Amino acid sequence: MEKVHKSEEEWRAQLSPEEYHVLREAGTERPFTGEYTDTKTVGVYRCRACGAELFRSQTKFESHCGWPSFYAPADSDAVVLLEDRSLGTVRTEVRCARCDSHLGHVFHGEGYATPTDDRYCINSISLTLEPQE
């Protein structure tokens, strides 16, 4: 996979202020406001910043947490997981492996009836959806 490297000025020119805040400054959109929270459309979810394939609709599930939830990335190399100690807690941040944009966080062992027991809690604004034809 070819990595995408841009200056912060280039990212600011490409992304809206809201997209930049989440993708480049590790912000979070408000719960239950995202475009894809309740979407049932079959297709591929891509990184809004670089277009890399990140998740598939077949792994999306309803977690009722306020953000789109997936139990696995499209490919194990699609995302990078990093320890996040912000907000006074330890979480696992999810970033796009291609452009290093912030996507959300992953949580394990919450008891969801999924094949992995993982919940990739992803900001809608970090994604675009390519519907299956």
Summarize the structure.
This protein is mainly β.
Overview of the structural elements:
There is one protein chain. The protein is mainly beta. The protein has one domain (8-131): Metal Binding Protein, Guanine Nucleotide Exchange Factor, Chain A, CATH 2.170.150. The chain is built from 2 helices and 9 strands, in the order H-H-E-E-E-E-E-E-E-E-E. Strands 3-4-8-7-6-5 form a 6-stranded antiparallel beta sheet. The protein is globular and about 40 Å long. The mean pLDDT is 95.
Strand content: 25-35%
Q: Report the top-level CATH class.
A: Mainly Beta
- How far the N terminus sits from the C terminus, by CA atoms, comes to 25 Å
CATH architecture: Beta Complex
Q: Quickly count the domains.
A: 1
Q: Runs with pLDDT <50, length 5+?
A: none
Strand order of the largest sheet: 3-4-8-7-6-5
Structural class: mainly beta
Q: What is the helical fraction, as a range of percent? A: 10-25%
Sum up the overall morphology in one term: globular
Give the integer mean of the pLDDT values.
95
Order of secondary-structure elements: HHEEEEEEEEE
- Tally the beta strands: 9
DSSP helical segment count: 2
Tell me the major beta sheet: 6 strands, antiparallel
The CATH homologous superfamily corresponds to Peptide methionine sulfoxide reductase
Q: Report the CATH topology name.
A: Metal Binding Protein, Guanine Nucleotide Exchange Factor, Chain A
